[in-house]
Amino acid sequence: MAAVWQQVLAVDARYAAYRTPRWPQFRTQYVRRRSQLLREQAQGGALEGATRRWYLRVRTRLLAQRYGALSEQSSCRAHSSSALRASRTTLDRMEDFEEDPRVARGHRRSLSRGSHAGVPRGAPDERAPGVVPTPLAEASRAMAGDTTLSENYAFAGVYHVFDQHTDSAVPKVQFAHDDRHLLACCSLDGTISVCRLAPGPPAVLQVLRGHCGGVADFAWSLSNDVLVSASLDGTLRLWAPADGRCIRRVPDPDGAALLCCAFQPLNNNLTVVGSARHMVRVVNISTGKAARGGAGRLPGRVLALCFDAPGRVLWAGDDRGSVSSFLCDPATGRLTKASRVVVQAGGSITSLSARAWASREAPDPSLLVNACPDRLLLFRVVEEEGSGAPGLRLRRSFPTRHREQPLRSCFCPLMSFRQGACVVTGSEDACVHFFDVGRAARATVNTLQGHGGAVLAVAFNCDESLLASSDAAGTVIVWRRQHA
Hints:
About 15% of the residues lie in helices and about 35% in strands. By secondary structure, it is α+β, with helices and mostly antiparallel strands.
């Protein structure tokens, strides 16, 4: 019955914003102390299950009487609205942060504030034989273990909580490439934090400052020595995360808010950026100039970008519900429009993730799409007959709560090395949801509950030992996988 105490903690965390709205550090201390006390109760087993559930109901009722019932318009909307006024016309209605009075799984172990310490024809055949893992792949099994999918994604504890961006939404978190403990997150307060989780106590290494508007997206270079960020102030910036220097500032030629960005995986000298004026542009970060022929136009504001694994196809999603593909020359950055698919008419595409294969049982290229409203979609990438352009065939659809926020999802890095396959997404119900793409029914593998607002982004480290999630209230939680 330890889960009941975790639910109690979630209720306390949800109401913490009402207790000391002007002093967030006291909210942090309160939640930390409550987590410690409830953890001791759970370990001691002092009360029976029925008594714990009764305590949860009574405490929820008392808090509602004292502070008012939690409504759809969350507490974080009130104390973050001022920071969002400048961005509400550019970033897909990010001011309408929502919460749902649900409960949390996992304990907030420790908290810290910012201490500075074309698809070419035949592209699917480019994979070498045997690249897709098989049940006999001993190295893959050694990495993933022999656990079931549900056991492997039993994230039962919180490793750390960062709250240096309190009261400003954190639209993206991402671990550095092939690094278990280096994490970055961007915020609508105009900054980017670079954090180190180990060795030593977790700490914020650098806070990258310079943008005059909220930072909507960022990306690590493959070598992790450079960060690129896209901001609502209409600039693309290049950073040295080691010392926090801004290396280059590239303004958008239209003066439009920049909503997303991505490195060209085969040529990190090129960065693709999407704007609020429907444009996709390739920028040479060494010169700060746009690549010749490296521009394309979408029907709506460009909210999401990603490359396929070979780096030849660029996928772009907009706020008109369509996903467009471009063939990208990795040497010059020239873009050629290939196809456009309306995925969610009248909705928005807020996140795109591409993989060379979804699982051992589904070895085709795949695209994971967050489509507003209320859908997480997994597509199989196919080659259209006649044109050879990349097309999409729906493989699975998962229900999520997605109405207003720019939610993100991701593939699990090691999901293909075991039976089944898993994807993870944020949700406006303040939860992190794990789905098995191979299950015909009851696809939910796990649900992490503990955020105080809509969960906007999720990210795994390279070995799946840690999962980071960020929310609309500015909190970043790093979850630790529960080992058997």
